[in-house]
Amino acid sequence: MPELPEVETVCQGMACVLEGRTIMEVVLRRENLRAAFPVTLKETLENQTVTHIKRRAKYILLYTTDHHIMIVHLGMSGKILLIPPAQNYDVQKHDHLILSFEDGGKMILNDARRFGMVMLANESDIETHKALKLLGPEPLGNHFSAQSLYESLRNKKTTIKAALMDQRLVAGLGNIYVCESLFYAGIHPQRRGDTVTETESEKLVQAIRDVLGKAIAVGGSTLKDYRHADGSLGYFQHQFAVYNKEGKTCPRCSNVIDQCTIQRIVQNGRSTFYCARTQE
Ligand SMILES: [Zn+2]
């Protein structure tokens, strides 16, 4: 599943290639993904120029000259492919939405499992759009701080893991980056949210920014190569400290004690990976 760093990488790749280009044709190859495509998608986007691309949480926002926004969520398996103007391209089975540009280039949304979504909004009411209005602050933005996190956790009876997964508290964090951030902050995933101290909130915000920032940097470095695979953006190999590392030597304790291995527990139906020695 694409997480925030993948979506950010996709947005950066789309921004490089699509900004300033005009959409000549919109082809829908089916009526729906998780939900129906907007019925006005074709008439709204055709003959519009892409002004800019932004990310909000795990949504891709494509802005056009007449102040409409196409909102794309990649779901479980969605991919954005950018096909250069001169390249022949055979449409694939799961290519559901194809934007063709004036120079012959294409942007394709391919989604094998069809949990993705495409919506439309007006620029003037994007903040109140149903997909975005309940989202908390961006984890890399100025509205997310140790103080704001500490205050949001004051009345959280749920675990810190569940609190960080709650998109209203902070937007765009998924299972992987929550596990990694709690590890680097030294906080046990089963701690109740309201027991997290101000100092721990500071460590946690720093850890979240670090793990996301590093992953985005890795993603960015893959963008220059996007043409030599299938044109798809944003999927790349990660090095995780704890995620999916059950039974592996703990990277924090490997110099201290060789018996510390990464533990796995299940919380709200999702695996959590952590170091039982240093996460308190
Ligand atoms: Zn350890």
Description:
Strands 1-6-7-5 form a four-stranded antiparallel β-sheet. The chain is built from six helices and ten strands; from the N terminus they run αβαβββββββααααββ. It folds into two domains: 4-128, N-terminal domain of MutM-like DNA repair proteins (Alpha-Beta Barrel), CATH 3.20.190.10; 146-274, Helicase, Ruva Protein, domain 3 (Orthogonal Bundle), CATH 1.10.8. It has 280 residues and is α+β, with helices and mostly antiparallel strands. Zinc ion is lined by residues 250, 252-253, 260, 275, 277-278. Residues 250, 252-253, 260, 275, 277-278 line the site of zinc ion (ZN).
Question: Are any ligands bound, and if so which?
Answer: zinc ion
Shape: elongated
Strand content: 15-25%
Please tell me the total number of domains.
2
Largest sheet report = 4 strands, antiparallel
Radius of gyration: 20 Å
Secondary structure class reads alpha+beta
CATH class assignment of the largest domain = Mainly Alpha
Number of strands: 10
Gross CATH architecture of the largest domain: Orthogonal Bundle
The string of secondary-structure elements, in order, is HEHEEEEEEEHHHHEE
Q: Pick out the low-confidence regions.
A: none
How many H/I helices?
Answer: 6
Average pLDDT rating: 93
